[in-house]
C-alpha cells in the first residue's frame, strides 16, 4: 500500500506559520498562549484588541477575519477572533479575548476589519458581550425588544417576550433633508419577491437613487447553534447543516463532517472521500442553478422562461441526488467518518444517468449563454452595476463566487485542501470586474468545473475494486473529544467559506457550536455595492449575492 | 330532438333548432361548441349560487408568492416545469397579498417574523385559505425547541390544510393543494382555531415586570405580539 497517501497529513496545521515570530511581534500584548486543535491562539487584554489586530493585519498579513466566536464560561466571557490570509488559507491564528463576568466589555475590532461590525452585533445579541467603540451597537438577529441573551448560561427560555410591529421612520431625514433633495424611506421586505426569502432592507431613496440601505436580518433565526449544542456529535447534529444553506446541502454537511473528524481524529476511507466530493459538487451545482434562476427572476421580473430552464436543470441534479441518498432536499448523506451508503444498485445505471446529465450540460450552458449573458438588456442591467472592489471585499470577509467575481483568487478546495480535491484536475474560476455580471459568470463557469470534478469522480468510482469499497470508517458509538478541545474548520460551500467552531467539554455534545456563514458576510457588503446606484440595481446586486436566509440568520 | 340533453355527442354541431339559430345569429360555427350541443338549446344550468361560487373559488385560486425557508424551494419546484401546479388552476403566484386568496406557509416562523406574517395574511382578499407546508409551519419542526421559534403557523393565523414533511416533496404539496381545492369547492372550511399570539396594542397590555421595562421603548399605540413561550405547546 505504498501508493496510498496519508490523508491526515493534509488536515494537519501548516507548519509554515511561525507562531513564535507572531508572539514576538505582539510582544507584551500576549498574556498567554493556547493550542487549539487546528491552530495556535494568543490570549490578550480586552482593551488592546485593535493594537493586536492592526499589528497582525498590517505586519503579519492576516487580512481575513474569518470568524468571531463569543461564548460564556463559568468564570468569564471570551471572544475568539480567527484570522487567516486570503493569499494562504492554511495560515491561521486565533486571538482570545477574555472579559470579566460582571463587566463583559471588550474593544471593538470594527476599525481593523469592517466585517467585525455584524459579528460583534451578533455576539452582543446572542451572548451578551459588549464591544466598546462599536459604531452601531444594536441587536442583529433578535427583535430590539428582546430580553436576555439566549446563548448566555443563565438564559431562561420560557420567559415571555414582546415583539413590536412599529412603523419605520426615515433614518436619515434629519441629515439629508433640504429644499433641493427630498428622500423617501422605502421598506423592501420582509415579504417581497426580490428579497429571496425573509430579508428586510431599510432603504432610503433620493428619487430613484439609493442613498442608504440597511439590511435587517433575523427573520429566519432558527436557533441553529443552540440546536447543534443540544445534539450529540455522532448522529444528532448532521441533519442540521442541511438546513443552513438549503439550496446546496452536501457542502454544509461537509463542513460539519470535516470539523468533527479533525477534532476526533477520524480517518475517512478514500472511497468515501470520492463519494463526498462528488455529492458536494452536485450540491454546488444545485445552489448555482437556483442562483442563476432567481437572479434572472430579479432582472426579468416574473416566473419567466429562464427561471424554468434553471429549475429544469436543478431538478435533474436533485433526481440524481435522490437516487444516491433517498431524499430530495434534506439529504443527510454524510456520516461522521464517511457516508451513509454506497451508490445505488445497479451501479451502471446510476453512472449512466450522471453521464447523460453531464453530456447534456454543455448544451444547457449554451442555452443559458444565448438567453442570458448575450442578451443586451441583461448586460445593460448587470455590467458595471453593483461593483465591489477587491479591497472592500476583503474588508467585509467576502468569500465564494462573490469574492472570486471581484478578482480574489480564493477557494478553500484548493487553498486548504480537503476531501479528494487535491487529486483531481480542475480550476478556480475568477473574474476581475467585480460587478453583477461577473458574479453570474463565475457561477456559470463554476458549474462547468463542478461537472469536470464529477466526471473524474465517476471514473474513479466505476473502476474502484469491489472489495475496497469502504464507505465508513470505524467510529466509536459515542464521541467524546478531550475536554476543552477547540477547533475551527471551514470548507468551500456554494456561497463561500462555511466554517464551524466547536468546543468540547468532555461530554458527547458540544459546549459551544458556532457557524461561520458565508452569506452573512456577503450580505454585509451589500450597502457598499448598492449605495449611489439605482434602486433597480440594488435588487440586481442582492440577487447576484445569492444569499440564502437560512444561512444568514442561522 | 336537441332540446333534451344528449348522452353522447356525435355528428355535426350545427345549430338544429330555430330558437337556437335565432339566438346564435350569424356566428361562425366554430363558436358552437360540443358543450353547447350537450346542453341542448337551453343555455341554462341549474345550480345553487353558493355551490357555483365555491366551484369557481376552488377552480381558480390565486396563490401568494411567499417564501420563508427550505420549503419554499420545493414550493418553487412545484410551480415550475416538472410539477406545474398551474395544471390545477392555482399556479399563478401573485406578488401582492391584495391579489391573492391562498397563502402557502413554506418554512419556520420565528418571533420577529410572526407579526409581519400576520400582517400579510390580514391584507389578503377574503375568503382566504392557508396551506401549511412542512413540519416547521405545522409545529416548529426540527427547531421546535429553539428559543425563538413559533411552534407552528396555527399560533398566529387559522390554517386550512397541513402538508407534512421536511420538506414535503412537490407531489405532496400538489396533493395538499388539490385536496384544499376539493374542499373549497364542496364548501368546507377549517374551523377557526384559537390563536394564542394576537396582534394587540402595547397600551392594552396588563402592567407587569416586562411591560414596565419596555415602557420607555415602545409607544402605547404600537402594535405588538406577545409570546408566552411557556404556555405554547
From TrEMBL, chain A:
Domain NADH-quinone oxidoreductase subunit D: residue ranges: 304-554
Family recorded in the similarity comment: In the C-terminal section; belongs to the complex I 49 kDa subunit family.
Record keywords, A-Z: Cell membrane, Membrane, Multifunctional enzyme, NAD, Transport
Cellular localization per UniProt: Cell membrane
InterPro entries, sorted: NADH_Q_OxRdtase_suD, NADH_quin_OxRdtase_su_C/D-like, NADH_UbQ_OxRdtase_30kDa_su, NADH_UbQ_OxRdtase_CS, NDH1_su_D/H, NiFe-Hase_large
Domain NADH:ubiquinone oxidoreductase 30kDa subunit: 43-159
Principal subcellular localization: membrane
Membrane topology designation: Peripheral membrane protein
Catalysed reactions listed for this entry: a quinone + NADH + 5 H(+)(in) = a quinol + NAD(+) + 4 H(+)(out)
A GO MF term: catalytic activity
Species of the source: Halalkalicoccus tibetensis
Claim: 4Fe-4S is one of the keywords in the record: no
A Gene Ontology term for the protein's cellular component: plasma membrane
Name this polypeptide is given: NADH-quinone oxidoreductase subunit D
Tree of life domain: Archaea
One Pfam entry name: Complex1_30kDa
Subunit structure: NDH-1 is composed of 13 different subunits. Subunits NuoB, CD, E, F, and G constitute the peripheral sector of the complex.
TrEMBL record, chain B:
Keyword Electron transport tagged: yes
Organism per entry: Halalkalicoccus tibetensis
Keyword terms, alphabetized: 4Fe-4S, Electron transport, Iron, Iron-sulfur, Metal-binding, NAD, Oxidoreductase, Transport
Occurrences of domain NADH:ubiquinone oxidoreductase-like 20kDa subunit (ranges): 70-180
Stored InterPro entries: NADH_UbQ_OxRdtase-like_20kDa, NADH_UQ_OxRdtase_20Kd_su
A GO molecular-function annotation: metal ion binding
Source superkingdom: Archaea
The protein, known as: NADH-quinone oxidoreductase subunit B
UniProt xrefs under Pfam families: Oxidored_q6
Region entry Disordered, spans: 1-24
Cofactor(s) named in the record: [4Fe-4S] cluster
Lineage: Archaea, Methanobacteriati, Methanobacteriota, Stenosarchaea group, Halobacteria
Stated family: Belongs to the complex I 20 kDa subunit family.
TM helices/strands, residue ranges: none
